[in-house]
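hi! just following up on the protien thing from before. the input was this:
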Amino acid sequence: MTTSTAIKPNTSSAYQQGIHPTAIIYDGAKIGEGTSVGPYSIIGPDVELGENCKIGPHVVIEGNTTLGDNCQVYQFASVGSAPQDMKWEGTNTRLEIGNHNVIREYATLQPGVEQFGGLTKVGDHNLFMACSHVGHDTFIGNHNIFVNSAALAGHIQVGDHCIVGGLAAVHQFARLGDHCFLGGGTMATMDIPPFCVAQGDRAGLVKINDVGLLRRGFSEGDVKKLQKLFMKLFKGDGVFKDRLEQCKEDYKDFAPAQKLFEFIESSERGVTQPRKK
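and the predicted 3d structure came back as:
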């Protein structure tokens, strides 16, 4: 059995490039221009780091992992280690992380398992706060925030501009629509529609994420339209299916509504509803 050779880059040229003498960089690892690696960090043989990244001390990046440009990884984070899935058989599955991501202390991001495509993929401009977790075969878009100890089980799909509150957890195969907000401690077992706020155990829809939408450039008029749509669709009288058909007719020329309807109709797991009083 052969093993990869670890190299401690203690030469003056390596130190000038921002790689600390105590860091362990395995043969085969690729490190982009301007990227620094802090004390006692470990970069595995199949890892590729982009340009101008800052890898702090005591970080482990391993597996078949790529990290884009201008990312920052803080101390004690674990990126690319084996997925926490009994089906994983040691195959060379992948973790792909885009640009401008921040991964804070003790966060864990893990690759996919072969039976489901073998890929976990993260977009750009995401913040993973301390102790947050991204499980295997999860796909994450752009500009999302995962607050301290937020946990995504395997096979999650996250859109853009989502916020997952502290200690919140998302069940396997659930989806988070664009601009949704999960309050602290939320236990989401079904899909969370775009633009909505959800909270509680089990999660229930509360309202439209009006504050977040206004911050991201939505007009007050569009936010008010979404608020009225929310009340009609999720809290109106009659059967949900009938309310959905009526809302599709009433809001057929309103683009945000179309995104909401498409998300609902494509749901396989089911869509979260307001909690019953």
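The chain has two domains: 6-158, 215-265.
The first strand starts at residue 6 and ends at 7.
cheers
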